[in-house]
Amino acid sequence: MFFAYKNWRNSGISFIDSTPINVCHNCRAHAHKVFKGLVKWGKNSVGWHFGFKLHLIINDCGELLAFKLTPANVDDRKPGPDMTKDLIGKLFGDRGYVSQKLFEELYERGVELVTKSKKKMKNRLVKLIDKIGQKFRGLALRIQASFNY
Question: Of 116, 78, 77, 81, whose CA–CA distance to 95 is shortest?
Fold first, then answer.
């Protein structure tokens, strides 16, 4: 499921992130029938979960620009191109969005993907404005937390 909200203010700064949505407790996953065939097992930094993954894009004011609901085993980079069709400017994401292919695809459309480097990657020069933008990713995380309740 994909949704893009059209009445948003485009400031050129947006944030992308994903969060797991559990459909049941892990110990009951084998008996779960409601979303049978739609949900999958996924793993993130916290551990394993059974359910969906909600991918969100918000702007710097916290307005929802786009979201996509996928099975939990879908890579974070996969829904990125579909969700960013109407965006321009800078898109800040976490280390789950590090991909040269994704960066190049978005850059051709006028979107500059800004992520932190993975630990094993070479150091690279980062513009100060991009470093500051990474600090504001916390806004996306707070909005994301509201979906978990």
Answer: 116
Ramachandran region, residue 131 (left: φ > 0; alpha: ψ -120 to 50; beta: rest): alpha
Amino acid at 121: M
Amino acid at site 7: N
Sign of CA dihedral 80, 12, 138, 142: negative
Q: How confident is the model at residue 121 (pLDDT cuts 50, 70, 90)?
A: low
Contact 88, 110 (CB under 8 A): yes
Amino acid type, 100: Q
User: CA dist 131 to 91, 95, 114, Å?
Assistant: 12, 14, 9
pLDDT one-digit tens code per residue, 59-95: 877 788 888 999 988 988 899 888 888 888 888 888 8
Residue type, 53: K
